[in-house]
Write a structure and sequence with these properties.
- Helix content is 97%, strand content 0%.
- By secondary structure, the protein is an all-alpha fold.
- The termini are far apart.
- The relative contact order is 0.05.
Length: 67
Amino acid sequence: MLWPMLALALAFCGIAVLAVLSVRVYAEVRRLARQVSASSERITRAAEDLERASAPLGSHVDALRRQ
């Protein structure tokens, strides 16, 4: 009777450890997703700023080419 109870206790402990690890993985995935989202927004903003900054330069280069 001791061995089946020990096996059951070890199985329960194993499942508990897996549950704790899965919660930790889930939390890290959520954190990583937030970081990726924030980085994507910053990249989009930087691309828009670059596009706005390059528009006057492009017209200036076009004017120099016409001369």
